[in-house]
Each structure stands twice: as C-alpha cells, then as structure tokens.
Amino acid sequence: MSTNKQIHDELMNVETKFNDKKIKGVNLSTFASFLSDQKFLPSSSVIEKDFEEALSGKAVSDENKALNSANVERMYGFNAEFKDIYSGEDKTPNEFGNDSNSEFNNKFMFLALNQAFRPDKNDMTGWINFHNRDGKHDSAMLKFRLEINDLDYYGCYITDIFKNVVDSNSGKVMKSPVADENSEEFKNCANILAQEISIVKPEKIIVLGGDAFDSLKKMAKLDIFGDNTEVVKNATLATHYSDPNTPKYITWFNKKRPALMDRIAEK
Fold first, then answer.
1. Interstrand relation of 108-112 and 204-208 (parallel, antiparallel or unpaired)
2. Inter-residue contact 215 to 162 (CB < 8 Å)
3. How far is CA 158 from the centre of its chain?
4. Is the CB of residue 104 less than 8 Å from the CB of residue 3?
5. Separation CA 75–CA 83 (nearest Å)
6. Using CA atoms, how far apart are residues 100 and 264, in angstroms rounded to an integer?
7. How far apart are CA 177 and CA 181, in angstroms?
8. Which 8-state DSSP code applies to residue 228?
C-alpha cells in the first residue's frame, strides 16, 4: 500500500489545466483535501452516551447536554481544521499516531459538487477545503462528521467533481457549461477526477448530494475510469452537509448517519 506522502505527491502532480493569476500553482490542493482533522469526534457510542438526553428528542434539562457545536467542542476538543499528515512538512503525528509515512486510508473517497462561495476566503490552496478555516467554527463540517462517524473515514480523500467553480448555488452550477457533458469544461473535470480515482484507488465512493451523484453518473459514461469503473458506478449517495432541510445536529446523527450505513450495506 502507498503512504500518505506518496498519495499526496502523486495528487500534487496532476495537471489541472487551470490558471489563476491570484493563486500560484493551481493544483488539487486548491479544490480537494483529506479528512484529517486537528481533533476528531469520538465514536458514535460515546456520543450516544454523553448526549443521551438530547438524542432522545426530549427538551434537555441543561443546555450543557444539548447536542450543538459549542458542547461538542467543549467536551471532545473537536477541531475540524486541517491536520497535515501528508506533505511531510508537519512532523507531528495526529492523535492516532499517523504521519506522512503511515499507510494511506483508501477505504472511502468522498465527492462533492463544487466549491461554495465564501466572502471571506475563496483561495483554498493548501488542502483546507472541507475543513474549518482560520480557527472559525463551521457548523456544516460538524454535520458532515456526524453523518459519516460510523465509517473508517480518517484520512480519506475528498474532492469536488467540478473544479475551479466557486458558487454556492448548485442550481446555477448545474445550468452552467461545466455541467454540460458535451463541454470541454465537463470533460476536463472528468479527466481530472479519473486521475484522482486512479491514484487513490478507493474501495468505495461516497457522493454528497444528488447533483454531484447525477454528474458522476454522466462522467461514468465517458469510459475513462478503467479498472475503477465499477467503483464509480457503484458509488453511494449521501446527504450533502449543506442541506437546508436538515438544520439540526440531532437529525444528522440519529437519521442521516444510519441511513448512510444502510445504503452502503446495500451495495
């Protein structure tokens, strides 16, 4: 198996064909990341025990027992900022003792649609996409971790299907040229994704959101995934963490988490 650094270096060498005068070297570290947090959540059994009252659906007797970001951070030190155990520049291992020489975790690969617009920070270079940034809390990142908390996701690769597209409105993205399967933009993104999958060699692919799922199915028709074609075709759909219909953390833990496990088991 490959080490974290070997996978990192191969991904950094992928030619994106993107050019941005504001960003030096538009590479995959601008669009993608690894699910490597400064401090992970504990197991779901620990969360169930510690937040038993809140997860029952009843009104909590004490605000300190509510399942929210403040209590999760206070109790577990949860911190979704990116922890670099890939480039070799940070010599400090993570909480599990993993560093750049550790075996890369390819059990899962996660796919989202595109990078959301953030008025304060849109240069995501350095693998910081899909993480809290600059010490700022991001509720969506906690929801995402709660949904996938039963998976062995630590250190897995995550990327956007459509690269170099910054827009929080997925409807607009799906009507733009990059989502047109006959466009050069679409084909370029598909070829980049094929290279990512070829490098990572995931056992399973989890796709966040229906638009990303449908776009991956279109890309699967291009006959560019080689030995990974079946993995792509058997990708599992998960709810995207920005889903406006699921605002409560409890729902992500009580419903979205087991639903995802059931869909994976069906494959």
1. parallel
2. yes
3. 4
4. yes
5. 20
6. 29
7. 8
8. G
Q: CA angle 242-243-247, nearest 5°? A: 90
Q: How many CB atoms lie within 10 A of CB 233?
A: 13
In this predicted structure, the answer to whether residue 21 has a pLDDT above a threshold of 50 is no
Round to whole Å and give the CA distance between 11 and 29: 8
249, 51 contact by CB (below 8 A): no
Distance of alpha carbon 164 from alpha carbon 113, whole angstroms: 11
Give yes or no for a contact between 73 and 194, defined as CB atoms under 8 angstroms apart.
Answer: no
Give residue-wise pLDDT tens across range 154-193: 999 999 999 888 878 888 988 998 999 999 999 999 999 9
The answer to whether residue 134 scores a pLDDT higher than 70 is no
Q: CB-based contacts of 159: which residues, under 8 Å, 6+ apart?
A: 28, 31, 32, 33, 109, 110, 111, 112, 193, 196
pLDDT one-digit tens code per residue, 102-121: 999 999 999 999 987 665 55
| 186-195: b (≥16 Cβ within 10 Å) or e | bebbbbbbbb
Q: What domains are there in the chain, each with its CATH number?
A: 4-41+78-266 (3.40.470)
Euclidean distance between CA atoms 141 and 62, whole angstroms = 25
Q: Pull the structure tokens for residue 254.
A: 């009580």
